[in-house]
Amino acid sequence: MNGLIDIGLNLTHDSFDADRDAVLSRAQHAGVERCIVTGTSVASSTAACELASMTPNRLFATAGVHPHHADELDAAGLDTLRELVTRAEVVAVGECGLDFFRDFSPRPAQETAFEGQLELAAQVGLPVFLHQRDAHERFVALLAPWRAKLAGGVAHCFTGGKEELADYVDLDLYIGVTGWLCDERRGHALREAVPMIPLDRILIETDAPYLLPRDLPQKPRTRRNEPCYLPHILTRIAAVRPEPLEQLAEATRVNSERLFRLTPRA
């Protein structure tokens, strides 16, 4: 399989500092031709942009603040994001949303940061790269009024079941599927939901270095996830869906190009 796009990769994480080029080389050898580097704070968004700018048309970036860092997002931080999202390599605003599972930032701060980034995305015409954990109802309530003003969005690292999926499809979101599907302990609801994702709305991602697929035949000793494992995730998705693997792979590529406005592969 060639032409795959990993739509969510934390390539600025320090676990990649020693061998980032080798990681990208392994990914390309595995057929992962393009990756979107996730920004989760003002600092990491800046780093993601710099990294993507050094590898144009192969790496892209998002710029945003994860709910874990929401209480760090002040007026100056929003101004920096506003500058970052004008850069050519930035294809989405986020990772933004709500996380009531960890509550690393107070919930009011999470909501303020989320709405601020939704407003920014609407202003600049970029899609949103969305995070939600244990906050589904409030997340939908905040997102829904903005949806018509947004240039699309993806429920990044979707781990929910059929009911959550239905709500996101009603909002015309794309759905990002990770190696969570490969977790025999926690992935049951997701495995039931994945066959219901419309073919023109499914995306694939590793969320590396997190969420190493538990069913890899040969696991790395470091337990670090990498984009080279994206084909494994794709095959596990295909196993629970009606389309042939090749058709599913092509759909994920086309969907990624459409949402993030990437130049179609020649």
Order of helices and strands: EHEHEHEHEHEHEHEHH
The CATH H-level superfamily is Metal-dependent hydrolases
* Structural class by helix and strand composition: alpha/beta
The number of distinct helices, counting runs of at least 4 residues, comes to: 9
Number of strands: 8
Instruction: Give the second-level CATH assignment, the architecture.
Output: Alpha-Beta Barrel
* Proportion in β-strands: 15-25%
Largest sheet: 8 strands, parallel
Shape: globular
The Cα radius of gyration reads 17 Å
Task: Give me the CATH fold name.
Answer: TIM Barrel
Helix content: 25-40%
Give the CA-CA distance, first to last residue: 15 Å
* CATH class call: Alpha Beta
Architecture overview:
This protein has 266 residues and is of the alpha/beta class. The protein has a single domain (4-260), classed as Metal-dependent hydrolases (TIM Barrel). It is built from nine helices and eight strands. It has helices spanning 20-29, 42-54, 75-84, 107-124, 136-143, 162-170, 188-193, 230-238, 245-260, and strands at residues 4-9, 32-37, 59-63, 90-99, 128-133, 153-155, 174-177, 202-204. An eight-stranded parallel sheet has the order 1-2-3-4-5-6-7-8. The mean pLDDT is 97.
Overview features:
266 residues; TIM Barrel; 37% helix; 8-stranded parallel β-sheet; 8 strands; single chain; alpha/beta
